[in-house]
Amino acid sequence: MRLMFLRFVCFVMLSIWVGGFTFYSAVVIPILHESLGSVETGYVTRRVTDDINAVGFITAASWWLLVWVERKQSDQQRIPLRARRIRLGLLLMTSAILLFLVGLHQIMDARLDSGDLREFYPLHRVYLIASTIQWFSNLGLMSVLITMGHDLLRRRASSAAASRSEEITIINCE
Asked: What is the pLDDT of residues 29-60, one digit of tens each?
């Protein structure tokens, strides 16, 4: 039961992270650009991305905890090796990108503060590309978690059905 709760927490945290990023980049940033200039938008965006990255760290920590807890599970609750490897690869990728984005964000903040936007924009482009790759990686994590949960439920259901048929057989034999 605790494991199911931890999986639920991981899914919710990832949904908040991905959803927040998606809403901000698809809705809020275009409105900011219409309402403010590029520099003013940059000042707002850098504060929001700090919060989005903080949610990302909490989310990644919860996923790493899940990986750690699941490796100690019984065979009946164990995730297939292939799914665990895919999840681990995606988790490594999104964690590495998050660390990269935080470091790059600090460099971009310094460029924004200096007012030299010529050096800011190439870094911003890299930031956007890395964020997009991370977004797809996180969608992959969601898919893997859903697939793994479905597989576990299916295995539990077939195990429960097998147990019931054994009980029925024992009752019929008596």
From this structure: 888 888 887 777 778 888 899 999 999 999 99
pLDDT tens for 9-26 read 999 999 999 999 999 999
Query: Alpha-carbon distance 167 to 174, whole Å?
Result: 11
Domain that holds residue 13: 2-173
CB 55 within 8 A of CB 67: no
Buried b (16+ CB within 10 A) or exposed e, 14-32: beebbebbeebbeeeeeeb
Residue 164 banded pLDDT, cuts 50, 70, 90: low
What span, in angstroms and rounded, lies between the C-alpha atoms of 13 and 147?
Answer: 17
Count of domains for the chain: 1
Mind giving me the DSSP string for 109-155? Answer: HHHHHHT-HHHHHHHHHHHHHHHHHHHHHHHHHHHHHHHHHHHHHHH
